[in-house]
Amino acid sequence: MTTIRCHKCPQRAVIRMRQHRLALCKDHYPQWFIEQTQRFIEKYRMFTHQDRILVAVSGGKDSLALWDVLWQLGYEAEGLYINLGIGGEFAYSDESQQAAQKFADQRRLKLHIYHVEERRGESVPAIALRTHRGRQKPCAVCGLIKRHTMNQMARQLGFSVLATAHNLDDEVSFLFGNLLSWNLRQIPRQSPVLEAEEGFVRKVKPFIRFSERETAAYSIVRGIEYIEEECPFAEGSKQLQYKDLLNRLEEQQPGVKLRFLLGFFNAMEQGFIHPIEDEQGEVILNPCPSCGQPTSTGDLCATCRLFEEN
Ligand code: AMP
Ligand code: FES
Ligand code: ZN
Ligand code: ZN
User: Fold this and answer.
1) CA 129 to CA 124: how far, in whole Å?
2) How far apart are the CA of 304 and the centre of ligand 4, in A?
3) Which atom of ligand 2 is nearest to the CA of 125?
4) Pick from 299, 277, 275: which is nearest to 287 by CA?
5) Which residues 6+ apart lie within 8 Å of 150 measured at CB?
6) Quick one: which of 80, 110, 146, 200 is 20 to 30 A from 100 by CA?
7) Among candidate residues 39, 38, 113, 47, the one with its CA nearest the CA of residue 80
8) Is the pLDDT of residue 151 over 70?
9) What is the pLDDT of residue 240?
10) What is the Å distance from ligand 3's center to 166 Cα?
11) Ligand 2 in contact with 139 (CB < 6 A)?
């Protein structure tokens, strides 16, 4: 096999990105990755050095890489880890928390921890079982609680921005799934930036253009000790099926995933895709009487309802 050389120096390349027609070495790749992230932050006007950013970290490759890049770029970024109480043979949640804590300690960064069972008296799988919303898989309940907690913590701790590490594969598979079922409510909400609204913090996704392979390569080259295991409930999920399918397509047509996503953003910008309004016109949001977060139900929000049900 011939060795592929870095396009910027004579060293051996550690990654070849066919969609960018670019191969880079262990020194030039992280440099390129960091510069690209800064470009995305500016292009989508995500935040500036004046913002306080809360990075949602899962202990995996994407979110630890994101925190590392923001730290290197000199942003004021603290971490949030939500311990969901997912165990099994591999103590997934506790191991992930340890990885996130170790990462933070090595860089003297502040990690906030929200332990669901300690705060709420029950782990996420236990809540899903009790409320009969996921006997086999607590993923829907988990997603709800994660989104709720991220927003709540960002607001309580006074952050102006919440950053998640959703990557190209996450976004493309999500869009693909939403298009397959024509989920007209979700489709227009998919964006690199969701502006702050009454009660909702600004949400950004700086890694939206990087593939999973690219974030993994960055973490490996930088020596980040991340948790490789996926959540045990993810196995066999639709999202993973879509990711597999789209990766097979990418093999045949390099760049197809990025074109699909950027084409969608372009269509949104040009006004081809509109948010749909309710029959009554705009949705009216009121603060949830229990937690204060905005909700359209006129009563308890969806997360608080989980704790009221038996
Ligand atoms: P997921 O919903 O698991 O695909 O993760 C999407 C993003 O949410 C990740 O890139 C992280 O930024 C964030 N995230 C996922 N799990 C956690 C967690 N347990 N605690 C904090 N942030 C998380
Ligand atoms: Fe929430 Fe797997 S991470 S169910
Ligand atoms: Zn090089
Ligand atoms: Zn509530």
Assistant:
1) 9
2) 4
3) 4
4) 299
5) 54, 56, 80, 82, 162, 164
6) 200
7) 113
8) yes
9) 95
10) 27
11) yes
Kindly report the CA angle at 10 between 8 and 16, in degrees rounded to 5? Answer: 60
- Cα–ligand 4 centroid distance for 106 (angstroms): 36
Residue 135, pLDDT score: 66
Ligand nearest to the CA of 292: 4
From CA 152, how far away is CA 122, in angstroms rounded?
18
Tell me which residue has its CA closest to atom 8 in ligand 1.
164
Structure tokens at 55: 């990075």
d(CA 173, CA 191): 14
User: Which helix (H) or strand (E) is 156 found in, with range?
Assistant: helix 139-156
Q: Which atom of ligand 1 is nearest to the CA of 234?
A: 3
Q: What is the pTM of this model?
A: 0.95
| Of 112, 49, 114, nearest in space to 79 by CA | 112
Q: Which ligand is nearest to the CA of 297?
A: 4
pLDDT of residue 89: 77
Q: Ligand 2: which of 148, 233, 238, 306 to mutate, judged by most atoms within 8 Å of the beta carbon?
A: 233
% of the chain at pLDDT higher than 70: 96
Give yes or no for a contact between 37 and 12, defined as CB atoms under 8 angstroms apart: no
Torsion of CA 179, 239, 67, 79, to 10 degrees: 100
Residue 232 CA, closest ligand 2 atom number: 2
- Check residue 281 and give its pLDDT: 57
Question: Strand runs (DSSP E) across 3-157, as ranges?
Answer: 15-17, 22-24, 52-56, 76-83, 111-115
What is the chain's mean pLDDT, rounded? 93
Q: How far is the CA of 183 from the centre of ligand 1 (A)?
A: 22
15 Cα: distance to centroid of ligand 3 (angstroms): 11
